Amino acid sequence: MDLQGNWLFRGYFGVSAPSGGPSITQQVRDRLAIRMGRSPSAVKIASYPVGPAWRHTFWWREGAVDYAEAQFFARIAEDYPVLSVGVSVEKGLEEPRAAPSAKRRTYLMERQKWDWQRFIKLAAEVLRSDVPECSSLLSRPVTLRLDTHQFVKGKAGARERAAFVFLEGAWHERHLGKAKERRIIDHLRDLDQRRDWWVNAYLACDLFPDEVRTLDAEALASALWGFSAVRQRLRSQI
Questions:
Q1: d(C-alpha 32, C-alpha 43), whole Å
Q2: Is beta strand 57-61 parallel, antiparallel or unpaired with respect to 44-48?
Q3: Tens digit of pLDDT for each residue in 91-135?
Q4: Is 21 helix (H, G, I), strand (E, B) or coil?
Q5: Residue 166 burial (CB < 10 Å; 0-12/13-18/19+)?
Q6: Do residues 195 and 91 make contact, with C-beta atoms less than 8 angstroms apart?
Q7: 102 vs 18, which has greater pLDDT?
Q8: In sequence order, what DSSP letters do the residues of 77-130 get, joined into one string?
Q9: How many Cβ atoms sit within 10 Å of the Cβ of residue 34?
Q10: Partners of residue 171 on adjacent β-strands
């Protein structure tokens, strides 16, 4: 089964194989597992929203904790027909009163167990070494997108977004011009100090409908694996 370009226009995946065989997300999992040297059962698939339909984001990871791990991901953009593929890492909440009461343990970040702390600690290496390597390997620009929400009494409130693109050997902040690595690192450290803010950080390359129409599970797995250097650096446990 190949990916479908029209998924990007409608804004959600349709991954089930018409023949009833493995879905394309399961096929990608199997191919990633081979590259990781793991059994397919050791690589877990998660999606959002949770449920049988309208899913616009998929993750592939090894651990059992929903948000703690730097994960491979594929995500259809919210506003445009673009498929982003790469590695995501999340910062959880550290203010108990901000987290949803029913899912408090899931939303509260344990710094020593979440890969976010390594992202903050090793951000310079990621930006200076890993991202240029990924960009060269894939022959594409690489974007760091930061989608953040403040939580108040269990509900997501204020939202901030920023995007930095590595292109032709330099970083650029979208709509604002060239960006120094220090600017990006300082922004990440600022987000890190916000105890009641959730951060989704995506390091990815973007694919467009005509490109997606030519992709099968192996091609998608290869694109994801292009970010393996980032994931390996960020993983607390390999």
A1: 8
A2: antiparallel
A3: 999 999 999 988 888 999 999 999 999 999 999 999 999 999 999
A4: coil
A5: buried
A6: no
A7: 102
A8: -SSSS-EEEEEEEEE-B--GGGS-GGGHHHHB--TTTSTHHHHHHTHHHIIIII
A9: 14
A10: 166
d(CA 79, CA 192): 27
51 conformational bin, left if phi > 0, alpha if psi -120 to 50, beta if neither = left
Residue-wise pLDDT tens digits, 65-75: 889 999 999 99
Report the alpha-carbon distance of residue 84 to residue 101 in Å, rounded.
32
CB atoms within 10 A of CB 58: 23
CA angle at residue 90 from 177 to 196, to 5 degrees?
Answer: 90
pTM of the model: 0.93
- Strands (E) in the chain, as ranges, are 44-48, 57-61, 71-76, 83-91, 142-152, 155-167, 170-173, 177-178, 197-207
Task: State the pLDDT at residue 54.
Answer: 82
d(Cα 218, Cα 235) in Å, to the nearest integer? 24
- Residues 83 and 204: their CA atoms lie apart, in Å, by 9
